[in-house]
Model the fold of this input.
Amino acid sequence: MSEIGCNVPKSKLIPSGSRSINSSGNYLTVLERADATKSLYRVLLDSGITQIMGSKEIRNGKWKDNMSPTLYGIGFIGDGVHMSKVGGTNTSTYDVWRGIMRRCYDVNLKSHYPTYGGAGITVAEDWHNFQNFAEWYQVECLKLPDIKLNIDKDLKGGKIYSPDNCVLLPYKLNNFITNSKTDGGLVGYTKPRSTKYTITLSILGKQHYIGEFPNQEEGDYIYRVLREWTYTRLGYMYHARGMISDEVLNLLSNQYSNYDDNQIQCVVEGYSSFIEKVNLFLSNEDVLTCRVKKLPK
Done:
C-alpha cells in the first residue's frame, strides 16, 4: 500500500478489504462495489461510518472522513442525508453553517472573529456536526416563505449558536437590527460650513432624512425614538406577511422598547413627513426582501 491512497492500479477493480489512507492520516476499508461500473464503492471508515466513494478518491487518498473535525479543527460533516455539496457547489445550508463556524473559530477572519469567537461567542457542540445543524435549519426554513434568511442568536440574548437560542430572520430585517445596535454613540453629521446636525435613519438599505438639529444630543433623541417606531412597524409588517414567527415578533417588541407610548407618539406627530415617506417606501413589497437598486441618473 502506498503512503497516501490505495495502490491498486487504475485499470483494475479495487478488491474488497483494500485499505486507503488520506492526507489527514485517516483510514478506510473498501467493502464492495456500489454500482455496476468501476467508479463507486461502499467503504467503511475507521471512525465507524460507511460512505459511498469514487474509485479515484480511494486511489489518490483525496477523500474525507465525514466524522473528522476538518473545519477549523471543530466542525465535521457527520453521517447523514444532508449534503454539503451538490455538483461541486456548496449547498446554501452548508454555507450558513460554515459562516457561523467561521465567525466563531477562524482566528484569521479579521472582519468578524474579534466580535464573535474572540468575544466568547461559540457554537453548541451538537451543531459542530453539520447534519444536526442542517436538520434544525431546514425544518425552520419550511416554516417561513422562500426568502433569504439570516440566523440570529441575539434576540434571545445568548452567546451560543444553538437550536434553543437561535431564530431565523429575513436578511434585511436582520441587517436593520444589526446596524442599529452598532451605531456606537451619538448619530448624525454636520455639513460643510454649517453648525447644524443632519440626522438620517437607514431603513432596509436606504437613508431616510429626519431633519437638522441645533445640537447632536437633540437629534440623537429624535433618531432613537423614530428608530424604535421603525422596529415596531417592521416587526408587524414582516409578521403580517408570515416572514417572522409570533415568537420573533414578541422578541422584537420586548427587546427594543426604551420609550413609552407617549414619548413615541409625541415624536411621531412632530415628524409626520418622515413617517409618511417611510410608510410609502415600505408599501413596496419588494423593499422587505429585495436589495435596493440604484435609480438611473
In short: The chain has a mean pLDDT of 88.
